[in-house]
Amino acid sequence: MAEPTGSAAETAQPRRPRILRGIPARITAGAVAIVAAVLAADSVGVVLALDRMLAGGVAATLEQDVAGLSADAANDDLVALDVLRINDDERLVRLEEPSGTVVNDEGAALLPSPEPGEQVRALVDGEPYLVASFTVDEQTVVIARSLVTVDEAVSATSLALAVAISFALVIIAIVIRFVVARSFAPVERMRRTVDAIDPGDLGARVPIRGVDDEVDRLAGTLNGMLDRLEGAQLRQRRFVSDASHELRSPLATIRQHAELVRAHPDAETERQLADVVLDEAERMQYLVDDLLLLARLDERGDVGTRTDLDIDDVLLAEASRVRGATTLNVDTSQVHAARVRGNERLIARAIRNVVDNAARHARSGLAFASHASDTGVVVTIDDDGHGIAEADRESVFDRFVRLDQGRDRDSGGSGLGLAIVRQVIVAHGGSVAVESAPLGGARLIIELPATAS
Predict the structure, then answer these.
(1) Domains of the chain and any CATH numbers
(2) Are 341 and 307 in contact (CB under 8 A)?
């Protein structure tokens, strides 16, 4: 079998043990480890305290023994017979005199001889003892008390604590695992919900429990992301649908005339055919430009470079253009100085779209107005046409919407003009609306902040 390459070996990550896979398992293991460390430290403290307490009791008893025997020795009452009478399993006594050594047990002969006033530990025949001594005249007495009961008590306590801690850790691990698993259950449900969402249909949403905790906030974030993805998908589909729908008409017109000329060469001249092709190509170019502009505004919502712009200059320039191209009367007496900050090209494009829309439906005249207010700049453009019904005043800003009264392709509208107006104005932080005009037609009101944000 071939050896793995160096790069593969370096990048290979060790697999995590199966028992620790998953966040709940890792949280449980970490929590149990911390609890175990705390309980172990506490248990060690308890055992050491118990050992010191019990050993202290033995030491106090040994001091009493030393005090009693030393008093007897001082009164010349301590003799070898007294030592031999000390016959219990807890004490070892050795009396050292010039005439010899007397012990109450064979083990006493093995005891060390500590300095008077000191207590030392010693092992005699494998059993622990606490040893002390005193000297009176020529007599030296070494006395020891057994620490076996102390060690047995400490060992029993240690074993009991170990069993109790082990049992407690098992219970704690089960409880923590259950609680953590319950806490992460909504996250798993969210994962399954998101995983089941069809890429072609992003309408499903993660349920929110309404308790306003971290899980609900995560669900809200996921839903917000799904909203943005769905919005991007809808914009993409709408762009493709709009483009295919609107481009189909000029292409069909070009094809129809081309097929007519091919079938009946005398039906149209080459110049007539060229005029049709150029007109429809120009319409297609306008459509594509408008669609791309809307797509950019949909995608980024950013208007690009912003500069200071005098709205009154834009309105006066549009009035001059309309007067030169039509016979309409344009009233600019209410155009006052007003300045905004924004993309000059896009704002001028939006105002031109509104003016062109008004000019197409005006009978004899238009009226432009602008003024600065406390909140920004207000622009109104009125016409004396048929007006817009109140029920249509919102939908007129939708894409490819044309109302019945002359608002069709033949009148020069693509159905995108007012949609572009709304997108541009909203991108600048403003708003646009339709009302009835004093002239009898429609009034379009544009509001922009003085420093558009």
Answers:
(1) 214-296 (1.10.287.130), 304-449 (3.30.565.10)
(2) yes
At 19 the pLDDT is 53
Give the phi and the psi of residue 76 in degrees, each rounded to 5. Answer: 60, 25
d(CA 397, CA 319): 23
95 bridge partner residues: 102, 141
For residue range 11-66, what is the model confidence (pLDDT) as tens digits?
445 555 555 567 788 888 888 999 999 999 999 999 999 999 998 998 998 888 88
Least Cα distance to 88 among 149, 7, 17 occurs for: 149
CA angle, 258 then 281 then 262, to 5°? 5
Pairing verdict, β 127-136 and 139-146: antiparallel
d(CA 381, CA 189): 54
Q: Helix, strand, or coil here: 20?
A: helix
| Helices marked H in 75-213 | 80-85, 148-196
- Phi and psi angles of residue 101, each rounded to the nearest 5 degrees, phi first: -120, 135
Q: Rounded to whole angstroms, how far apart are CA atoms 140 and 385?
A: 133
User: Under a CB-based contact definition with an 8 Å cutoff, are residues 311 and 340 in contact?
Assistant: yes
